[in-house]
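Example record for the data management plan.
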Amino acid sequence: MAKINGGDVYNKVPDKCKVSYDIRYLPSQDYEEILSQIKGITNGDIQLHLVGPAVQNDVNHKYIKRLENTIKESMDSDNVAVFGQHGFADTRYFSRFDVPAIEFGPTGAEWHGDGEYVEIASVKSYKDILVNFAEHFDK
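Corresponding structural encoding:
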């Protein structure tokens, strides 16, 4: 549940309530089934604002492997993990066209929060990885 709004003053039972959800479903789930389950527990109006399939890539795709290897070489480390996660990103726009897309970037924390930050040194590493990947893209 992302947000609940109801009423106009504190000391009165509201005549309506608006509940907003942000559902990030897995590739194995069907949004029609999720919507059906929600409809089964409410008698209110349901409005969909954005619906799109979950992104799923082949971790062995040549470009994903190439990026993974570029990161390993640039960071001088074998400790690189490709993993799935809940979230929303522009990768979904590429997946519609069978273009593999993953998220990766500089190190930091508190994403999308008040204390969000990025470690400056990791921005240079990120830039170096992107340049190396681009320079060797078709090799």
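Summary line stored alongside the record: The first helix runs from residue 31 to 39.
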